[in-house]
Amino acid sequence: MRSFRLIFALIIGLCILGSGSLSAHASGGQYDGGQAFDKLIRGAVNVFTGWVELPKRVIMTSQEEGPASGLTVGLFKGIYYGFVRTAAGLYEGVTFPFPAPSGYAPVMDPAYVFSTDESAGHSSY
């Protein structure tokens, strides 16, 4: 167990230390640690809130198409989007030191499960 902690701490330390030099190299010498940190936080939030897609999709589909669709189609949409959001969060958490996609842009739209598109009244997937 102790060796696992040591290896984990070493990997995290190398990611943190390497993130500045890798990002500075990729952006032509200017490192923006704030964007990398935002990407890490966004990834962590999406990993821990990916499951919220399930009730969100059931409710959204119920409101748009009726309760029967909400409990069937909405359930499957929720499982799918929950998996995708969690996987996107893992990807962003692991790749936070690198500006990929370009400029540390979010992998999913909206970036967080709780974000909404004000004009449509629901998420902008």
Considering the chains and any ligands shown, give keywords for the structure.
66% helix, single chain, mainly alpha, 125 residues, disordered C terminus, 0% strand, 4 helices
Write the layout of secondary structure elements.
Layout: H1 2-26, H2 33-49, H3 53-65, H4 67-94
Describe this structure in words.
The chain is mainly α. It has one domain (33-125). The protein is built from 4 helices and no strands. The chain has helices at 2-26, 33-49, 53-65, 67-94. Helix 3 (53-65) runs antiparallel to helix 4. The longest helix has 28 residues, at 67-94. The termini are far apart.
Short description:
This protein is mainly alpha-helical and 125 residues long.
How many β strands by DSSP?
A: 0
Order of helices and strands: HHHH
Count of alpha/pi helices: 4
Structural class: mainly alpha
Largest sheet: none
State the distance separating the first and last CA atoms.
Answer: 42 Å
Principal-axes shape call: elongated
Domain unit count = 1
Please state roughly what percent of the residues sit in beta strands, choosing from under 5%, 5-15%, 15-25%, 25-35%, 35-45% or over 45%.
Answer: under 5%
Fraction of helical residues: 55-70%
**What is the C-alpha radius of gyration, as a whole number of Å?**
18 Å
User: What's the mean pLDDT score?
Assistant: 79
Low confidence ranges: 17-27, 118-125
